[in-house]
Amino acid sequence: MFTETFREVLGKEGVVAIVTCADGEAHVVNTWNSYLVSPRDGTLLIPAWKMRETERKTQVNDAVQLTLGSKEVAGRRGPGTGFHLRGTARFLRSGPEFDLMKEKFPFATRVLEVTVTSLTQTL
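^ that's the sequence the OP posted. Answer follows.
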């Protein structure tokens, strides 16, 4: 599922937008490409420190969308590329993947796990 270009973008710095929606209202939070870890194809782990509203919304509706990109990776029409992801989300508070992320990102109080169901290159 994760293309070579997508994996290259994960290795470059850029901003990530995470969108959740529940109770008739969308919520957007940002993080950095360098905080995303892919332990296996189709899964992203993201360290969470605050993200309280994101967590609350995923408890009502686990659907999530993300966008990310990098000017440093060639796109379809020139420099820079981006991606739109859809998937489901849940927050981890313990377990091996939580421990892995806590080791890498000591500030994490939880880990947002995203199971990606679609990945579209947008640029």
